[in-house]
UniProtKB/TrEMBL annotation:
PANTHER family noted in UniProt: AROM/DEHYDROQUINATE SYNTHASE (PTHR21090), PENTAFUNCTIONAL AROM POLYPEPTIDE (PTHR21090:SF5)
Name of the protein this chain belongs to: 3-phosphoshikimate 1-carboxyvinyltransferase
Function recorded in the entry: Catalyzes the transfer of the enolpyruvyl moiety of phosphoenolpyruvate (PEP) to the 5-hydroxyl of shikimate-3-phosphate (S3P) to produce enolpyruvyl shikimate-3-phosphate and inorganic phosphate.
Residues involved in 3-phosphoshikimate binding: K23, S24, R28, S168, Q170, D316, K343
Predominant subcellular localization, coarse grouping: cytoplasm
Gene this protein is translated from: aroA
Protein family: Belongs to the EPSP synthase family.
Gene Ontology, cellular component aspect: cytoplasm
GO terms, biological process: amino acid biosynthetic process; aromatic amino acid family biosynthetic process; chorismate biosynthetic process
Amino-acid positions noted as binding phosphoenolpyruvate in the UniProt annotation, renumbered to this chain: K23, G95, R123, Q170, R347, R389
Gene Ontology MF, one: 3-phosphoshikimate 1-carboxyvinyltransferase activity
Organism: Halobacillus locisalis
Domain annotation Enolpyruvate transferase: ranges: 12-424
Length: 433
């Protein structure tokens, strides 16, 4: 466990920043490339620990994946070219790896076992195991397949028509991947919009799917063809610096070349609703993914109610939005966000505990929280709970705290943002220690 002491900012955050590649798109790019025939090059790949778990999984299936910093060269040999791993696969801390790979492991014609770290072993897997079983998958696991470790005995899958029980892009993507192995056409009906990177990226690998509102259909047996992918910057990583600038006097910064997919740009919408001095514009498309710049300046924020359809769009940004809300005028209410309880940690409890320790006034609710605004943060010693997004929220809080913030176990930030502290120092134009 390592500690880090972060001092309050003496000036604002200023300048331009390119955040690392999008985590969701990086996972998908390597999965599709490894299942495709031919050589795919992925640039601006996120080399955070989570995405490297997905890379390692496919190396265990015998796929040659060369890494040169953020560039991956994947020598795909098609799904027939994958070979049975001799060792269990370690999904580490990564929910996306666990859920998406389950759809692949269910369809591959061999036996595989998979496990995760302490946090991932507590996260629900029945949300993918149950529908995969409906397709004929043979999966066993702890508590009847509700939790990792899991074992898959790949078997022929049958297409199905399935209404999702959870509003989750991971479950949707898992079942679309399984649908590629199934006989017939699989149709998935979403409970509401969730991030649509799988639907946007699969066609780039030559896969046909139809999207009709909440209904997505995919035919089994399609061959994936290699494709070169440039991954946009991760808006979920950018969110930490957007909020940092919004709450730290003297700040003005621009995040360049960040993904602005409409199913992911809720952080920009939420900050706009809070009255932040923020503007964004899309300047390019990489494949079907919109990419652009976001500029933000320090300014007074107002409380909002964050609920309903905006929640899945900002689900990973809620910890940092809660910090923003502690500085806004008025009382912010976050609801419909029960999913936060089954992330890397219970993020409702972790956010409330962390902000309270730092001196804010926050109440936990079953499906969200109530955050009283205009709070002056004292600083102090906090625990990341091994959750990268809680660790980064604490680091941003240090910028406006009276006393230093000490973060226990801050190394977990490498899960999604290995260069986070370098970027923070770059924008502060001084080193943190
Ligand atoms: O599909 C994805 O890449 C992700 C979907 C979300 O999870 P859920 O699908 O569980 O909501 C999100 O929280 C996670 O960080 C990444
Ligand atoms: C919830 C997250 O990721 P995952 O589900 O992939 O662990 C996250 O990155 O905030």
């Amino acid at each position: 466990m390592t500690n880090r002491k972060l001092y309050p900012a003496t000036g604002g955050l200023r300048g331009n920043l390119q955040v690392p590649g999008d985590k969701s798109i990086s996972h998908r790019a390597v999965i599709f490339s490894a299942m495709a025939n031919g050589t795919s090059k992925i640039t601006n790949f996120l080399t955070g620990e989570d995405c490297m778990r997905t890379v390692e999984a496919f190396r265990q299936f015998g796929v040659d994946i060369e890494q040169d910093r953020g560039t991956l060269t994947v020598q795909g040999k098609g799904v027939e070219g994958l070979s049975a791993p001799t060792q269990p696969i370690n999904f580490g801390n990564s929910g996306t790896t666990a859920r998406l790979m389950s759809g692949v492991l269910a369809g591959l014609p061999f036996f595989t076992t998979a496990y995760g770290d302490e946090s991932l072993s507590k996260r629900p897997m029945d949300r993918v195991v149950n529908p995969l079983r409906e397709m004929g998958a043979t999966v066993i696991g702890r508590e009847d397949g509700s939790y990792l470790p899991l074992a898959f005995q790949g078997s022929p899958l049958q297409a199905m028509r399935h209404e999702l029980k959870v509003r989750s892009a991971q479950v949707k993507s898992c079942l679309l991947l399984a649908g590629l192995f199934a006989e017939g056409e699989t149709t998935i009906i979403e409970k509401g919009v969730t991030r649509d990177h799988t639907e946007k990226l699969l066609p780039q690998f030559g896969v046909e799917l139809t999207v009709n509102g909440p209904t997505i259909s995919i035919k089994g047996g399609q061959e994936l063809k290699a494709s070169d992918i440039r991954v946009p910057g991760d808006i979920s990583s950018a969110a930490f610096f957007l909020v940092a600038a919004a709450i730290t006097p003297g700040s003005e910064l621009t995040i360049n070349n960040v993904g602005l997919n409409e199913t992911r740009n809720g952080i920009v919408q939420a900050l706009e609703q809070m009255g932040a001095k923020i503007s964004s514009h899309v300047h390019t498309y990489v494949g079907d993914e919109p990419v652009g710049d976001v500029t933000i300046k320090y300014g007074q924020l107002e409380a909002i109610t964050l609920e309903g359809d905006l929640i899945p769009n900002v689900i990973d940004e809620i910890p940092i939005l809660a910090l923003a809300a502690s500085q806004a005028q008025g009382t912010t209410v976050i609801k419909d966000a029960k999913e936060l309880r089954v992330k890397e940690t219970d993020r409702i409890a972790a956010v409330v505990d962390t902000l309270t320790t730092l001196g804010a006034n926050v109440e936990a609710k079953e499906d969200g929280m109530v955050i009283h605004g205009s709070q002056s943060l004292q600083g102090g010693s906090i625990d990341s709970y091994g959750d990268h997004r809680i660790g980064m929220m604490g680091a941003v809080a240090s910028l406006i705290s009276h006393e230093p913030v000490v973060i226990q176990d801050k190394d977990c930030i490498n899960i999604s943002y290995p260069t986070f502290f370098d970027h923070l120092a770059q924008l502060q134009n001084k080193k943190t220690s």
